[in-house]
Amino acid sequence: MQDILFDFISKYVSLTEDEKNAIVSLDLFRSVEKGTTLLKEGQNSKDSYFVLKGCIRVYYIIDGEEKTTAFYTEMDALTPHCVITKAPSEYFISCVEDSILTVSNSDMEVEINSKFPKFELMCRILSEELLAKQQIDFDEFKTSSPEQRYLNLLQKRPDLIQRVPQHQLASFLGIKPQSLSRLRARILEKKS
Amino acid sequence: MQDILFDFISKYVSLTEDEKNAIVSLDLFRSVEKGTTLLKEGQNSKDSYFVLKGCIRVYYIIDGEEKTTAFYTEMDALTPHCVITKAPSEYFISCVEDSILTVSNSDMEVEINSKFPKFELMCRILSEELLAKQQIDFDEFKTSSPEQRYLNLLQKRPDLIQRVPQHQLASFLGIKPQSLSRLRARILEKKS
DNA sequence: CGTATTTCTTAACTTAAGTGAACGAATTAT
DNA sequence: ATAATTCGTTCACTTAAGTTAAGAAATACG
To answer: What is the pTM for the complete model shown?
Structure first.
């Protein structure tokens, strides 16, 4: 399981055995059950996550309704907004499936980063990359219709459509569950 | 003018006079005329921008139509996607107004970052912050209607609505110019 | 195993966005 | 200065998403 983490890190920097051991000794690995809430609205957590296996989601509760805005699966890293701003969280994070994660505290990260400049470098490259990637995702979202967004998702993350409940997918696509059902029926119609 | 840049930097790290001089000696400042194209689709630029004064925009040309997805104004930093991925740009960047920018080459940045670890730290903090901020923007976009998005923009960036052409604003809000006109008329109606 | 709950789909109706066209106003080019 | 183009708004019409409600399917749970 640890290998997944080191495979991921190796895309950015190369680690010595000592450095790898330093990471392992932090004891970051956690198994979490489907349905577990990792972060609640209003909380002031310092934890960041990296998904080794499974799926977690970010959602808001607006007017009593759950609005899912993001899914994180294998090899995805998530630093919640509240960790950066040190303000209470505006959203929830919970497990869509039984998952294995690393959970790292931001104090811990500051310490590691100052001890190993290599991590600082990795974090910079990683967040620049994530920022650029997310910009493209946002641009695609803005410039396409719900139907195009669904077809796009089908191309880029086909697994999500299988493993995630429809009503969560719907808000992820910026529409209502009923509209997603209808839209899918429409697409099937067109194909035939 | 330089002070704006140093004010910005001081939010993240504090610089010595030597370090400030090192930056000034890079000769990053550029005046650009309204309408100037800074980056074209297909180009492989290494330049990043920081807006000291004015406004620049990111837009795609999709089926012959301009789709504006982002505006950068005073104190905003923009590293184009192609600089990160080293692939040809998918979008254009141009000046909405006469502007004063800093333009920095990524080779230059690598050099500075290795010379002054402080910059590395600043870049990491900055991109983490931008990533978090953009995530919230994306979430708000997903969870609200065009009308709510317009009202939200009116709150958060009222200047944009004044200084930017309507048809560019429209695609920024994910709709057509005609829909933006109608939506604004609808809001005025409601108020009275 | 069966009941309760949640989830997904369908349908009818409402509301808002997309489309194509027209027109005046503003901007730009010559 | 004038012509040409671009821009913003309005309108009528089309299409798709929101809403409300109902029923079927899947899932959770005692």
So the answer is: 0.95
Residue among B115, B132, B64 at smallest CA distance from A134:
B132
Residues in chain B: 192
Q: Supply angle C-alpha A80, A116, B84, rounded to 5.
A: 60
- Of all residues in chain B, the one with the smallest CA distance to A173 is B142
Does A138 contact chain B (CB < 8 Å)? Answer: yes
A124–B127: do the CB atoms touch at under 8 Å? yes
Tell me the C-alpha distance between A54 and A36, whole Å.
Answer: 12
Q: What is the pLDDT of residue B116?
A: 87
User: CB of B74 within 8 A of CB of B52?
Assistant: yes
> Which residues make Cβ contacts (< 8 Å) with residue B28, sequence separation at least 6?
B102, B103, B104
Residues of chain A contacting residue B120, judged by C-beta atoms under 8 Å apart: 117, 120-121, 124
| pLDDT at position B191 | 65
Structure tokens at B138: 């994306």
Of the candidates B70, B84, B90, the beta carbon closest to that of A128 is on B84
Please state, for a pLDDT cut of 90, what percent of chain B lies above it: 86
